[in-house]
Amino acid sequence: MRISIDTDVCIGAGQCALVSPEVFTQDDDGFGTVVPGRASDAGGPLVREAARSCPVRAITVEEVTA
Ligand code: SF4
């Protein structure tokens, strides 16, 4: 699974960090960011829930095979 945030779209709502704090956090300016080291290995329903909860759909969760 590969998780990314489109920083051009993120408005810093913080929903992702609330829903899935192990994978998402907020930078010093309040914008969403993926916790270091969690961009490719993290999975689980909370990640998808966080992506769905983002009001501007800035989060992309991709299945990566192999
Ligand atoms: S929920 Fe979306 S808009 Fe809010 S901080 Fe996370 S990525 Fe940014």
UniProtKB/TrEMBL annotation:
InterPro entries reported in the protein's UniProt record: 3Fe4S_ferredoxin, 4Fe4S_Fe-S-bd, Fe-S_cluster_ET
Domain 4Fe-4S ferredoxin-type intervals: 1-29
Top-level taxon of the source organism: Bacteria
Cofactor: [3Fe-4S] cluster
Entry keyword annotation includes Cell inner membrane: no
Gene3D superfamilies named among the record's database cross-references: 3.30.70.20
Pfam families noted in UniProt: Fer4_15 (PF13459)
Alphabetically ordered keywords of this record: 3Fe-4S, Electron transport, Iron, Iron-sulfur, Metal-binding, Transport
Role played: Ferredoxins are iron-sulfur proteins that transfer electrons in a wide variety of metabolic reactions.
Protein name: Ferredoxin
